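Title: Prediction job returns without error message
Component: structure pipeline
Severity: low
Priority: P3
Assignee: unassigned

Description:
Job completed but the reporter wants confirmation the result is attached to the right record. Sequence as submitted:
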Amino acid sequence: LPGAVVRADSRRLPFGEGEFDAVTSVWLLHLAGGAENVRAIVAECARVLRPGGTYVTTVDKGASHNVGSDIDAVLAARPPSVAHDAAHLVEAYAREHGLTAAGHARFTGHGQGRSPRRTVADLRRGWFVTLPPGEPLAEEFAARLAALPDQDRPRPDPVFTLAAFRKS
């Protein structure tokens, strides 16, 4: 496809208003660091979108990993974190910027099911924001995960959600 790769702050895109027929921010909003940043990213995506254009993003990323496994049962007791990419929040931000809901789709993250051993490694590298690496509580969860059977067997793959919005 013709085009270019541009590195930019997604809260301040280096494009003019209405330049694109489609804009995506897949697996980004959950990393944005707070509601203000998510709102700003959605606003920028709406700004650079042409009337009639479509914005597609992933929502509820963290919740997608809860597949009902023994790993999830262990992690259920961890301190909660705020999901800034919750579907209802993203939909509200989209409405604020002239976007209307156009649909949802789900897809399986093939090969992304976690094993207990991989989950412990993720925990120790800071993947779980409410369990900082090296903290006693994080190590307590690591020990619980290490006690699960089948340490290298991946549990079911997560199912992710895409939300689409149209600019009127």
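Comment from assignee: result matches the submitted record. The two ends are 27 Å apart (CA to CA).
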